[in-house]
Amino acid sequence: MSAPAKLPRWAEFGLLPLINLAVALVVAGVIIKILGESPLAAFKLMATGALGTQEGIGYTLYYATNFIFTGLAVAVAYHAGLFNIGAEGQAYIGGLGTGLVCLYLGTWPFWVVLPLAVLAGAIFGAAWAFIPAWLQARRGSHIVITTIMFNFIAAALMTYLLVNVLIKPGQQSPETREFSTNAVMPAAHELFDKMGITVVATPLNLAFGLALVAAVGVWIFIWRTRWGFALRVAGANSAAAVYAGISPPRIIVGAMLISGALAGGLGLNELMGSQHRILMDFPSGAGFVGIAVALMGRNQPVGIVVAAVLFGALYQGGSQLSFDMPKINRDMVVVIQGLVILLCGAMENVFRAPLTALFARVRSGKGIE
Amino acid sequence: MSKEPAAPPSTPDAPPALELCGIDKRFGAVHANRAITFAVAAGSSHGLIGENGAGKSTLMNIVYGFHCADSGEIRVQGRTVEIGSPQQAIAAGIGMVHQHFMLVENFTVLENVVLGVEGGALLAGGLAAARAELGRLARDYGLEVPLDAVVSELSVGLQQRVEILKALYRGAEVLILDEPTAVLTPHEADQLFAMLRRLRAQGKAVILVTHKLREIMAVTDRVTVMKQGAVVAEVATRETSPRGLAEHMVGRAVLLQVEKRPAQPGAELLSVKALEVRDRLGVARLKSVSFNLRAGEIVGIAGVAGNGQSELLEALAGTRAASRGEISFGGRDLVREQLDPRARRALGLAHVPEDRLRMGVVAGFSAADNAILGYHDAARFNRGGLRDEAAIRAACAAKMAEFDVRPPQPELRLAAFSGGNQQKLVLAREIDADPQVLLIGQPTRGVDIGAIEFIHKRLIALRDAGKALLLVSVELDEILALADRILVMNGGEIIGELARADATEEKIGLMMAGVRAEVSP
Ligand SMILES: Nc1ncnc2c1ncn2[C@@H]1O[C@H](COP(=O)(O)OP(=O)(O)OP(=O)(O)O)[C@@H](O)[C@H]1O
Ligand SMILES: [Mg+2]
Fold it and tell me: Which of the two ends of chain A, N or C, has the fewest CB atoms closer than 10 A to its terminal CB?
């Protein structure tokens, strides 16, 4: 019955992620050293690049916005016992929904366009998650496999649409025309401007606020509603769910619809907030980073927001690095980011066992030996 | 069960097979083990008893490396050993059969037994060798198990045999059994004890944790009594009696049999006609079962485990689909309308599942969350679209007080409660829902004698309040103590019915073995 001892909460939610991060940085440092740069200088550059200037902070939070949406998407599915690898594709198709509203209804007033764009993003994202969910619920097709496949299908579909249907006439690159100004998310520096505060212009925009609202909403849903309770029961023990009159297939579909809808929020930030058009591959991996963010944030909304900001900083700091240190090119930055994802996400349990043993020993004053 | 002569005491200078010295363990505020010291000689068997939450499982889990003691020493054959994991315990020759089975449900018996000791990279060779070895063990100890059956398809009783085989296969010299008979029929229990005696005769040390005092009397040489984490008595079995042990345990005289008035059956509340259940392979597990339940009676279902009782309970509760037949309840046909468990609950049909850990609770959730499982949609636990946390907590606290669930902390994870206390919480949840019909599987599985007395009283009070109870228990004693009418199942059928007054252990035993009796009116 009893699993091996558990970690105290502060260690579980604070110490363990920090250890993972520290190890990732050490490994990254070794690589930087091998490349012939000073690791300390590099990290300092990354830190100041990400958090040392207004511009850096703006970019960091702008990246974080994407990660919050996808991280929440992964977390909701996780609580239902599902591993949603498809946030990337759901974000891509969700963004299509948002983009279509902005393209074709974008001349309406902003406060009308915004809710429609949010809704369309959610519906398109949810629809893309629905098929794998339905296949899992009814036919038992494993959701990990199907959501991965649906990422590829989403990419192919979007390429087709952008190249053949949505492309701006008379143009080479597969992109739509620009959204009209009514369909553009207010930028943070504009909002600050209205309050009489001048800040540097960055892509940070209102979508960051929407992401935070989504995080609060997810928290309330998961922990404070009976539907969230049913979802967690089904995720933790499906026999107990059946016993309690909770239908696991229905939970699978419901959880994936919510998950897809959350991933669909990415278009609000990326398209409405920054690019102002639909273009190829705009999620650019945020769906996968969302997995690491959810894992590192322990599938708790607060943790996800913190982890998303951390990964945002990593992205922003990384681009600064490739800018200022010629020996470290863009690809090396991707390698470093990948290391952090690997250690904080995929291998986040590696240090759990030794840490737990250590705690048991410290707590007892001496071991059993 | 006859008492065998105690095994010859090992030579005085031989070190004990297992010795615990000053084992101490706290879980936060709970002091689960207080400086526990005792020794078990090779070739003897040692009983460990105590109230729910006394710390028995904790102590055994420490010996088996699941928990780490805060202080204290474990010695095996006189040598101090460090046991930080089950692997180390197994290496030291300690085997354990858990209160809650630790089997991989979708593996076969054979695969479960060799799991972790496959012997070589290629499975096939190891499996063939294991098959031969297991055949030998099965013959020697009378532990027949279908080696190629998938564990999830086995009855609880058979799953336990797999656990025992697992420990023996790993070469255990000290075998710990934590409430092994909680799920066995008397006959199966006798077989188990015969096997334990054989083990003892071969010089192995056996530690038996149980709530059933007659088992202690039947099979152990010495008994240790625990209370609130500490050892309060250690006696030679020969020199004590069940009554004496009960008083040591509870600290007062215990009624070993609850009084009840004769039943006054009223209107029919539930009726079952020609009910049939098939398993995944299409095999009929329940064949044309018909009976009824009336207000104010307790109907007991007796039978050797695996003869359709579980399927019957599940089909009634709605957790398993019936393939044919009729269940009439509250003016509805539950089978034809395919009502799910939630709808059945709403009609007043509550269910205490046999295997509470698999189905009745979510181990990782708080006690409070578990206390509303199945009732989480009820208006009393929700307010304005959100869960009413205060009400949920208060309801759990009230149940804990009423059923003496310890520690009374609604926010504690369910897995942190002792087995008996988990069971009390599930019972509290279903009884407090005030159902018209209560289906109960193994109501007192794992609860201590003081609590059994209390639970039996509550069930009888429910009956006297005009409810109907359907009781499935592998404990014939329990059925005889509670039931007003007894149905005996064999091979998926009800092969006989006895009024309580006509029922004797012999009659029921014969019917359980498949001898038909004329069904009394
Ligand atoms: N992992 C844990 N975390 C916190 N408390 C625990 C944990 N495991 C056990 N406890 C507490 O330790 C005490 C002893 O529990 P234990 O399971 O050893 O009792 P037990 O004697 O086996 O009872 P039962 O007869 O009901 O099985 C209980 O109060 C229980 O709640
Ligand atoms: Mg126990």
Answer: C
Mean of the pLDDT values across residues B300-315?
90
pLDDT tens digits, one per residue of A169-180: 888 889 999 999
B389-402 and B419-432 helices cross at what angle (nearest 10)?
A: 110
**Identical fold between B18-250 and B268-512:** yes
Six token digits for residue B18: 């297992």
Between CA B36 and CA B31 the distance in angstroms is 12
Return the CATH superfamily for domain B18-250.
P-loop containing nucleotide triphosphate hydrolases (3.40.50.300)
More confident residue, B115 or B330: B330
- Lowest average pLDDT, out of A234-248, B168-182, B482-496, goes to B168-182
CA B57 / ligand 2 centre spacing (Å): 4
> What's the CA gap between B408 and B431, in Å, rounded?
18
User: Is the CB of A1 less than 8 angstroms away from the CB of B389?
Assistant: no
Burial class (CB in 10 A: 0-12, 13-18, 19+), B79: exposed
**How many whole angstroms separate alpha carbon B245 and alpha carbon B253?**
10
Residues A328/A321, Cβ–Cβ less than 8 Å? yes
Q: What is the DSSP letter of A186?
A: P
Number of Cβ atoms within 10 Å of the Cβ of B80:
12
Contact A244 B342 (CB under 8 A): yes
pLDDT digit string (tens) for A77-93?
Answer: 999 999 999 999 999 99
Is B268-512 a domain of CATH 3.40.50.2000?
A: no
How far apart CA A201 and CA B226 sit, in angstroms, is 71
Q: Is the pLDDT of residue B518 over 80?
A: no
Task: For residue B54, report the distance from its CA to the centre of ligand 1, in Å.
Answer: 7
d(CA B221, CA B470): 38
Structure confidence at residue B464 as a pLDDT band (50, 70, 90): very high
Helix (H/G/I), strand (E/B), else coil: B232:
strand
Q: Which amino acid is at A43?
A: F
Q: Tens of pLDDT along B328-382? A: 999 999 999 999 999 999 999 999 998 888 899 999 999 999 999 999 999 999 9
CA dist B481 → A172, B180, B228 (Å): 86, 22, 29
DSSP alpha helices (H): ranges in B318-403? Answer: 341-347, 367-370, 389-402
Q: Are B42 and B200 in contact (CB under 8 A)?
A: no
| Cis geometry, peptide bond prior to residue B407 (ω within 30 degrees of 0) | yes
Contact A236 B387 (CB under 8 A): no
% of chain B residues with pLDDT over 70: 93
Ligand 1 shell residues, CB under 6 Å: A 2; B 27, 30, 32, 50, 52-58, 406-407, 416-421, 446, 448
Q: Which residue of B has its CA nearest to A4?
A: B66
Q: Decide if A246 contacts B373 (C-beta within 8 A).
A: no
A369 and B82 in contact by Cβ < 8 A? yes
Sheet with B324-329, edge to edge strand ranges: B284-294, B268-278, B324-329, B332-333
Q: Whose CA is nearest to atom 10 of ligand 1?
A: B416
Q: Please state the domain extents for chain B.
A: 18-250, 268-512
Rounded CA separation B480/B497 (Å): 13
